[in-house]
């Protein structure tokens, strides 16, 4: 599998995890953030991946170096703001938050530089992934940047995949998207679907295609994902694997979809690859991690089944 992917990543994070080792405590430093996790999985699947993001302060210098060591190409935007950091204690097997430092919002000039870097990087890629800005208050950057970037790339004939929710999803849809990946919890939280009502979930997917998305994929935790691909409404079924850590599964699914599309896979095959990447991720401790050969083999076990929205209950 090949192809090029650019990931728009507004909130690169430095993560610090304390683990129990054979000779005492072990402290591990890793890059994090939705954009990085999606980029890492797309890279694992064979895509050439460039991550564009803002980096500033002590944490920014460290996380930028750590990201470069993973094999990603980094389109770094130097900013005056400091990147976010969190510390987790996992010595007893459970992930427990210890401390967190929120990233600082970008200035107007930083946003302009980031936009230029993102537009340039996206024009050189087969597929662009728009990752979310994180749940920070105040927000890191104006939500309207998603509408501008999606709209400009749309007018330039580029393929754009978004893994977003809330205001930034609405903005990106206004610009136009090739594919949206969203979770059922996010649709319910945003008031686009009714909790526990499958028919309203399917209706929300159709509505997303009317407001700017060519295709829609909805992850549903442990239940089969739903997708509206090329006008075909389907469920994606596969083997149920034992869950070690559910975090990162959605980002892995997005990465699989983007990597598959960048490689020129048929929509159904890209959907199977995305489902397999998300499924394998839950069997591992590392977020959005997994081996390409295992994911590709697992993808063969996933099937698409047509759905009738009028019969859904």
Automatic annotation (TrEMBL):
The keyword Nucleotide-binding applies. GO terms for molecular function: kinase activity. InterPro entries: PfkB_dom, Ribokinase-like, Tagatose/fructose_Pkinase. Residues 23-289 form the Carbohydrate kinase PfkB domain. It comes from the Bacteria. Keywords: ATP-binding, Kinase, Nucleotide-binding, Transferase. It holds the Pfam family PfkB. Belongs to the carbohydrate kinase PfkB family. This is PfkB family carbohydrate kinase.
């Amino acid at each position: 599998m090949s192809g090029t992917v650019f990931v728009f990543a507004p909130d690169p994070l430095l993560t610090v995890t304390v683990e129990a080792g054979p000779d005492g405590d072990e402290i591990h430093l890793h890059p994090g953030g939705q954009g990085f996790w999606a980029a890492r999985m797309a890279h694992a699947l064979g895509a050439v991946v460039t991550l564009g993001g803002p980096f500033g302060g002590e944490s920014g210098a460290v996380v930028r170096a750590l990201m470069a060591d993973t094999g990603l190409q980094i389109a770094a935007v130097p900013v005056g703001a400091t990147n976010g950091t969190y510390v987790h204690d996992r010595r007893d097997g459970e992930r427990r938050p210890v401390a967190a430092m929120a990233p600082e919002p970008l200035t107007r000039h930083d946003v302009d530089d980031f936009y230029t870097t993102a537009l340039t990087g996206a024009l050189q890629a087969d597929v662009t992934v728009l990752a979310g800005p994180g749940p920070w208050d105040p927000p890191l950057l104006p939500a309207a940047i998603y509408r501008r970037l999606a709209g400009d790339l749309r007018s330039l004939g580029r393929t754009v995949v978004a893994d977003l929710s809330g205001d930034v999803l609405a903005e990106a849809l206004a610009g136009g998207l090739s594919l949206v990946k969203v979770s059922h919890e996010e649709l319910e939280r945003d008031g686009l679907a009714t909790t526990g009502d499958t028919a309203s979930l399917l209706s929300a997917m159709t509505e997303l295609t009317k407001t700017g998305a060519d295709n829609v994929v909805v992850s549903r935790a442990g239940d089969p994902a739903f997708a509206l691909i090329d006008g075909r409404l389907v469920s994606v079924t596969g083997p149920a694997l034992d869950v070690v850590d559910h975090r990162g599964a959605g980002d892995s699914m997005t990465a699989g979809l983007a990597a598959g599309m960048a490689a020129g896979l048929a929509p159904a095959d890209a959907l199977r690859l995305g489902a397999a990447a998300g499924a394998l991720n839950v069997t591992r401790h590392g977020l959005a991690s997994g081996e390409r050969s295992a994911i590709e083999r697992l993808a063969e076990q996933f099937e698409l089944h047509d759905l009738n929205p009028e019969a859904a209950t």
